[in-house]
């Protein structure tokens, strides 16, 4: 079978929400009113820490598809002031969130034990909180959320090949700014900055999906022990170290793009490595010069620059059973599935969605029961399901 990215179709039930006159859809979707509707119609579980488990109404998969959101809509009314990355989440909240992640990943691995039959993935995509709300690519909900997805491999095998030039795939590494101009520097910085005891750097051939050939060009780490490792606090600390290293790299690079030979950013996690590896690297500084000069002469390109860090961080089990962590620059707002070469085209089709809904809800309520048993939240009742 030919290896390459796949494009699948996923039906959804249109959401019966009216956007108030004079508002753009993504402005309304960030409002407390819309988020109340999300919890009331699709909420599964919440807890005092503000973590909301919900059914994805516009999902990627009808097999298993759910999210945990850090719902600050009632405590932070300014959408631009809400946390958009894990490093901005209070430790007491993150501790509960990590346990929720572990329970869901354990359920997914138990329910879908065969890597040749199902692709499992969980991850988060963060968009820069300084972007205007009206910009393309800004998410419908401007709050940090994890996404847990299962795709049947047979569906992916039957799916047609996606256009490799699809812009949603170009951030998978082979075209991204980091990989095209300073990939060696990127990896060397991670190697020197991160003190990892559990995670092991993974070769590209070991990390990628054989079916799709993705990820391409991204730094990746293998998770020895698979789902058992998610039960260790040390894993989640190293998961955060990868994000911190990425943030230092991103902020330093775009600081140099913005201002030639600028001082290192404030509050770096790895200041010594930033100075030794990045600010003394000719490829790194030369790439910043190229981007800076293009910004000066290309208004459209400059407007698309993400001056603050936007990222996608992903845990997945590939089709050979390896559990992998990877992280990518989020330059265009594409979905985490596309890091693995899976392009999802959502189709409004209430009748087709209804065929999948009972089995999907059964699985979502099963995982909710496990979270409740571990004292990780209280069930939410909607018109479709009860609170327990």
Task: Give a quick precis of the structure.
It is built from eleven helices and twelve strands. By secondary structure, the chain is an alpha+beta fold. The chain has one domain.
Overview of this structure, please?
There is one protein chain. With 388 residues, this protein is α+β, with helices and mostly antiparallel strands. The chain has one domain (6-379). 37% of the residues lie in helices and 18% in strands. It is built from eleven helices and twelve strands. It has a ten-stranded antiparallel sheet. It has a two-stranded parallel ribbon with strand order 1-11. A hairpin with a 4-residue loop joins strand 2 (43-46) and strand 3. Helix 5 (177-193) packs across helix 7 (233-258), helix 5 (177-193) packs across helix 8 (271-278) and helix 7 (233-258) crosses helix 9 (282-297). The protein is globular. The termini are far apart. The model has no long low-confidence stretch (mean pLDDT 89).
């Amino acid at each position: 079978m030919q290896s390459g990215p796949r494009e699948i179709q996923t039906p959804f039930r249109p959401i019966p929400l009216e956007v108030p006159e004079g508002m753009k859809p993504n402005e309304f979707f960030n409002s407390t009113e819309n988020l109340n509707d999300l919890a009331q119609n699709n909420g599964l579980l919440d807890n005092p820490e503000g973590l909301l488990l919900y059914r994805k109404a516009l999902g990627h998969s009808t097999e298993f598809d759910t999210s945990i959101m850090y719902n600050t809509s009632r405590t932070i009314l300014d959408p631009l002031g809400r946390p958009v990355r894990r490093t901005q989440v209070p430790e007491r909240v993150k501790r509960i969130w990590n346990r929720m992640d572990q329970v869901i990943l354990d359920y997914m691995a138990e329910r879908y034990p065969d890597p040749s039959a199902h692709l499992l993935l969980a991850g988060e995509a963060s968009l820069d909180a300084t972007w205007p709300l009206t910009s393309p690519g800004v998410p419908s909900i401007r709050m940090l959320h994890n996404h847990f997805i299962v795709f049947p491999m047979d569906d992916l095998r039957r799916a047609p090949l996606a256009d490799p030039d699809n812009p949603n795939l170009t951030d998978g590494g082979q075209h991204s700014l980091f990989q095209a101009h300073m990939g060696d520097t990127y990896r060397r910085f991670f190697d020197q900055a991160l003190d990892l005891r559990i995670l092991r750097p993974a070769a590209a051939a070991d990390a990628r999906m054989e079916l799709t050939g993705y990820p391409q060009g991204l730094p990746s780490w293998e998770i020895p022990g698979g789902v058992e490792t998610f039960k260790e606090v040390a894993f989640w600390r190293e998961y955060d170290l990868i994000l911190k290293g990425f943030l230092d790299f991103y902020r330093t690079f775009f600081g140099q793009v913005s201002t030639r030979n600028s001082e290192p950013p404030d509050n770096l996690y790895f200041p010594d490595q930033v100075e030794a590896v990045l600010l003394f690297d000719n490829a790194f500084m030369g790439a910043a010069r190229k981007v800076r000069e293009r910004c000066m002469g290309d208004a459209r390109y400059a407007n698309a620059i993400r001056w603050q860090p936007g990222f996608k961080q992903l845990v997945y089990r590939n089709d050979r059973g390896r559990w992998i962590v990877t992280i990518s620059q989020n330059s265009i707002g594409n979905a985490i599935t596309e890091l693995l070469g899976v392009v999802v085209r959502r189709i409004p089709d209430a009748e087709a969605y209804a065929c999948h809904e009972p089995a999907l809800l059964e699985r979502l309520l099963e995982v909710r029961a496990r979270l409740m048993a571990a004292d990780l939240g209280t069930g939410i009742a909607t018109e479709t399901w009860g609170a327990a």
